[in-house]
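Field reference: "sequence" (input) and "structure" (output). Example, Gluconate permease:
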Amino acid sequence: MEPLTISWIGALAGLAIAIILILKKLNPVYSLFLGAIVGALIGGANLEETVNILVNGTQSVMGTVLRVLAAGVLAGVMMESGAAETIAQAIVRKFGGSNGFHLDRGHTCHRFIR
């Protein structure tokens, strides 16, 4: 079985459709899936190949998506529970205030040096 190649016209058409649908306020997930389906069909894949492309592509990024979501949930829980503040205070106590960093309201990091 030879590898499937989608033409660049199909890829660009799918991308354009996804962008247009997102700008029309359609849910981005649905827009991207519709753009991928239409792009693959325009690019030369049949319906079975299009479904296989979508399934394989989704499976290949699922681990990364889950890691990002888990990190976001963990960070949110730490912020809400006060654990992040406790950890920050422990680090400052361990290394001392003069060896710490300060983040000002402009999100610029300044190192305290004595």
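The mean pLDDT is 85.
Residues 1-64 form one domain.
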